[in-house]
């Protein structure tokens, strides 16, 4: 667990086909993200709640796991079955999972 009441999963335990919601900002997303992830920046979350996928569970990722933990706590309070991806995209990339960048650039986690 990353904080009280925040459901968390390690990247190694994440199913290969898990629905991932990336809450990093636009520049972070463009530099490198999971190929099947959906993007909804944390800064825009409350104004775009209608765009939250209805996946159960919904795995939420950021760079290191701190912002996504806050998003998971918020979403859980709204009734969403959200789970924080511990270690975020840094752990994702370190585990050798696929990362892509916008525009065909070399992907990196910033």
From TrEMBL:
InterPro entries for this protein: GlpE_sulfurtransferase, Rhodanese-like_dom, Rhodanese-like_dom_sf
Origin superkingdom: Bacteria
Gene3D superfamilies per record: Rhodanese-like domain
PROSITE patterns in the cross-refs: RHODANESE_3
Ranges where the Rhodanese domain occurs: 14-101
Pfam families associated with the record: Rhodanese
Protein name: Rhodanese-like domain-containing protein
Organism field: Pseudonocardia humida
């Amino acid at each position: 667990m990353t904080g009280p009441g925040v459901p968390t999963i390690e990247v190694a335990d994440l199913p290969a086909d898990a629905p991932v919601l990336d809450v990093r900002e636009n520049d972070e997303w463009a530099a490198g993200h999971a190929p099947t992830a959906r993007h909804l920046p944390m800064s825009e979350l409350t104004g775009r709640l209608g765009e939250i996928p209805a996946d159960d569970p919904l795995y939420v990722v950021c760079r290191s796991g701190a912002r996504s933990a806050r998003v998971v706590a918020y979403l859980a309070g709204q009734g969403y079955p959200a789970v924080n991806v511990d270690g975020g995209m840094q752990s994702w990339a370190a585990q050798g999972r696929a990362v892509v960048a916008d525009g065909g650039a070399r992907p990196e986690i910033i």
